[in-house]
Amino acid sequence: MNFKTFILIGGVGIALHGCTSFNGSSSDNSVKNFASPQEMIAQKNINQANGQAKEYVYSWGSNQNEKEPQSLYPRKYLNNYCSAKNGKFSLLYKSTLSLVKNQSDKKLLLASGNVKQGIGAYKCVQSNGHSWIVSIEPVSERKSGDGSNARLVSLQTRLMSADEAKRFYTNVAVTSRAAEKKSSSNEQNTKKALNKSTPPKEPELKKETKPAAELPAAQPVKVVETPQQQQLQAYVSARRDLSKGQNQINACNNAQRAYNYGKLKGTSASVYTDSGMLVARCLTSVPAYSNRFANSKAQAIRILQHLANNYNHAGAKNMLRQIK
Known about the structure:
Layout: H1 3-32, H2 37-43, E1 54-59, H3 73-84, E2 88-93, H4 103-110, H5 113-116, E3 120-125, E4 131-143, E5 151-160, H6 162-195, H7 227-244, H8 248-260, H9 269-285, H10 287-290, H11 296-311, H12 314-323
Antiparallel strand pairs: 1-5, 2-3, 3-4, 4-5
Helix pairs in contact: 1-3, 7-8, 7-9, 8-9, 9-11, 11-12
């Protein structure tokens, strides 16, 4: 190979590297256009269309290890969205795979780094002070039915409030540790009993028959609500409390949460737009809430302009005229 050939090949390599970098930044720009993380979750089809868990390949098989695992896509998309908003994306709670009921499935998933690296609760703190939490949890695992050696994991991705995330992950962790401790204690007691020498047999005494202890009632399995249901509940709660003038900070938080979901498939746009109106009202008329932001009025104007320009919202137009 002569010197000119070497230079030519080197130039081609640099050009290809430049294309790769450009595509990566282009991806960040594309997710930046979404109004909220929930809108991105819906538009990117991170869950199924009905909001339920979606399957991703986490292992392509021993012969195709070079392929990128799909199981990291949900975290990757949300991390890119957070970065595009000049935010910091970090792990808030580790997953204990509590939604995986089959123990064999759980063992397989726990052994896979392609699963563990992409699950749990993540928090994004954006440069404007706004923050949100997303939970990515496995539900089940199976082998692909196409004859390949690929294995699939069903992942449920949904936004959570700080309190909801704390309850879910803290309670699950405590329950898991208690179960492990009880299991370990039972094993130790069994070993001690086996190691003890057998005492001399005594004459049998008639024992009183005691009624069997009642077993605790089985706890109902908590059904995961769809994003549409969560958005509607947050909006209704916010509207009710604000109209009554009670629990205003909590009401404003619920309004912000409902608005953050964006316009979801299968729901009326009014839930999203009316939630935005409530947020604008909180930012301009509820001091206990608006004082938390350095530029609350500017944020309210941005929301109102978005609703007026994109949804032709009459209420937003009227409120803009009043503010200005």
